[in-house]
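Re: duplicated header lines in exported structure tokens

Our pipeline writes sequence and tokens for each protein into one text file. With two proteins the header for the second block appears twice in some exports. Here is an export where it did not happen, for reference. First protein block:
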Amino acid sequence: MKLSDLPVKYVRVGFVRYEFRKFSKVHPFRDDYKGVCDKAARVIWINFGLLAKPEDLGNVLLHEIRHAIFDFAGLDGSASEEEIIDLTTNIECQVI
């Protein structure tokens, strides 16, 4: 799986456009993250090297998009946000 396999290159959350990018040596995030929502740069970074199964990509994208949604809604980045996103992402991936 690679970035060019995605049917779209970005997602809109409200009026904010987030571009999808693969992890590279220039990103400031830990290499053990499957994905990161960089709210300041409006980029959703994807670490394709850690995605073991095709369905992992959907889970990572939905998880990071939910971070963007929380940001757009003005919610903070507390630990409780991470717990809520993990729980709802895993449930939503089972439904989709």
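Second protein block, exported in the same file:
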Amino acid sequence: MTRTPWNSDFRPHCENGELARMLAKKLESRGLDFRLKTYADSMCDDKHVEKLVVVNPQAPERGEVHVGDDGGVTWKYFGTLDGAGTDRILDEITNALRATGLRLRRESA
């Protein structure tokens, strides 16, 4: 079995924490704000988990991106599931995941 962050209890916290701080400085240089959150690891009492929470201060309505010290990235968007809200969520997800030049699938008539 291939070892990944999701099937392993191995986390090089110190090295990854340093990389996260370097990433935070690069994000800050691009005009984004961040907070570094640290909390106790639920799997091991003597370890901690670090997470970057990144926001665009000029457009906080676009949500937050959480980057964990295990490499996990989560986008938290606080939208609504009304017509306009779902259209906005659709656009945000599409822009984040679609590669340049990827063709749209047409629905069958």
